[in-house]
Amino acid sequence: MLSGVRNALEEKGLGFIISIVYIVFVFALAKVLSTVLNRAVKSLIAHRSKAMADDRRGRLETAGTLIASISKYILFFIAFAVSLGELGLGNAMNSMLAAAGIGGIAIGIGAQNLIKDIATGFFILFEDQFSVGDYVAIGDITGTVERIELRTTSVRGYRGELSIIPNGSIGAMTNYSRSDYLAIVDMPVEHGADIQKSMDLMRDEALLYAKDSQSAHGEASVLGIVDVREDSAVLRMILTVRHAEHWQVQRELTKRIKERFEKEGIGLSKHHIRISGD
After folding, report:
1. What is the DSSP track for 44-103?
2. If DSSP codes are grouped into helix, strand and coil, which group holds residue 14?
3. What string of H, E and C letters represents the secondary structure of 161-210?
4. What DSSP designation does 157 have?
5. Burial of 111 (0-12, 13-18, 19+ CB in 10 A)
6. Euclidean distance between CA atoms 268 and 157, whole angstroms
């Protein structure tokens, strides 16, 4: 039946309509298969990663996104090749590649950047430089890795912005998720306050916090006075915490120490309370 329709249209000079419909169908099928495969990979990873540690879960998610990306490129390449055959350009394309050389054509259309992106993507995966879920700084971009694909890496910033980075452009990179981090809390107490008592209270609050939270590792260290200002002396405390959780720990400890100081009658500067992380 389809052959009859094609022949009838070709007799009227409209055979190209069948070709267009066929090409649209092939690319639509590639899109559907890519979407189904991507969802299947995500479902499998979600099921397998439930009982895994964070680092292994990140590697599994990274492998999943890369598999989905490679599959998508393969499916659309097949669709492109099939479309060329439908248009009758298959033999012409083969002749052109044989005459000019695949390497020369690839360089001529700027595929060296594509090859560089793909090669760097494989090195990122196999060297385990970073994984999905890691908090990284790549150049001027800082955020959480959402996807690692064949050509690009997607990083979600703190404010929600999504940056798409070609893998080949990734040079110096800092991964904040591969080791514990240091939470720093500075408390500016008024001149005349009992410094030793203030330090003891800061340490006590850190110990109480460590009992309630799994973020803290080890005991807090109160370094003492790190700065003297016109209206205050700044006391610093440091605490080792899980990666990417230092801001949360610093905010909570600052709140608890401030409330404890107010309860114990220790005055704070009205101008400076700094929360930072290194």
Report:
1. HHHHHTTTS-HHHHHHHHHHHHHHHHHHHHHHHHHHHHHHHHHTT-HHHHHHHHHHH-HH
2. coil
3. CEEEEEHHHCCCEEECCCCCEEEEEEEEEECCCCHHHHHHHHHHHHHHHH
4. -
5. middle
6. 34
271 secondary structure, DSSP code: S
Question: What is the chain's alpha carbon radius of gyration, rounded to the nearest angstrom?
Answer: 30
The neighbouring-strand residues paired with 224 are 236
Residues 6+ apart with CB under 8 A from 98: none
Does the domain made of 181-277 have the CATH classification 3.30.70.100?
yes
pLDDT tens digits for 206-220?
988 888 887 777 788
The residues near 210 (Cβ < 8 Å, ≥ 6 apart) are 216, 219, 220, 239
Q: Check: pTM over 0.70? Answer yes or no.
A: no
Angstrom distance (rounded) from CA 117 to CA 149: 10
Spatial distance between the Cα atoms of 223 and 270, rounded to a whole number of angstroms: 22
Coil, strand or helix at 42: helix
Domain chopping of the chain, boundaries: 2-175, 181-277
The SS3 assignment for 231 reads coil
Beta bridge partners of 205: none
What are the pLDDT digits (tens) for 31-43? 888 888 878 777 7
Report how far residue 48's alpha carbon sits from residue 39's, in angstroms, rounded to the nearest whole number.
14
What are 144's strand-pairing partners? 135, 156
